[in-house]
Amino acid sequence: MRSHSINELYGAQVFDEPAIALAPTPYAKWLTCRVAMEEYGHHVRFRELGEQIGVPAAQLVPGEKKPLSIFAFPLTSWEEFCVIKLLADLAEILQVEDLLHCAFHPLRNLARMTMPEERFHAQFGKDFCIELCRTQEGRAKVQDAIDRYFPLLPPFFGASGSANNATFRRLGIKQRRNEEMRADFIERARALVEDELKLRLPKLDEAA
Ligand SMILES: [Fe+2]
Ligand SMILES: [Fe+2]
Q1: Distance 52 CA to ligand 2 centre (A)
Q2: pLDDT tens, residue by residue, 72-91
Q3: Which residues have beta carbons under 5 A from ligand 1 (an ion)?
Q4: In the chain, fewer beta carbons within 10 Å around the N or the C end?
Q5: Distance 25 CA to ligand 1 centre (A)
Q6: What mean pLDDT, rounded, does the chain reach?
Q7: pTM higher than 0.85, yes or no?
Q8: Ligand sitting nearest the alpha carbon of 123
Q9: Contacts 24+ apart (CB under 8 A), 184-189
């Protein structure tokens, strides 16, 4: 709950809200506003549930806890935003999918509510990336953003062999191991980037 509440707020502040100004057309701005509204909404809902089960309010907003490294890079272009929606929201989908069968029903219900919106964000990223890839210049910019952002995403799934993850699985809160989710994410990202966009997914260090 803490990590969802914090990361949804970071994402909305660092990427989604600034992207409204970068969106190139009124139509793209309209859809980007919807994405920003929904990401702020995810923060609000996860935060509410966190507060209801007694998590101290200060632990549900960015503060002492170090943010994911992806949030350290301020957004500079529309292409970057489209790639973030394509790939970072795919990572969000995997996280939310894992909670769809969560034994803690308030969290399961929240995941079920959030899922269609995350699917919309990833589809938004895919549709706009496809559009950008119609020109040579656009393809080059999308590839460059993939090269810079994709390597930051696999750590999002946490350490392999994590003791916390084992506890969550024992309690039925989570279904899959961190390393299984990471491998699934990399394969789904590869299919999107290589099979659908006909671009290249950068190779990761073996350690990642
Ligand atoms: Fe979200
Ligand atoms: Fe999202």
Answers
A1: 23
A2: 888 999 999 999 999 999 99
A3: 8, 39, 42
A4: C
A5: 23
A6: 95
A7: yes
A8: 2
A9: 184/94, 185/90, 185/91, 185/94, 185/153, 185/154, 185/157, 186/154, 188/90, 188/94, 189/87, 189/90, 189/150, 189/153
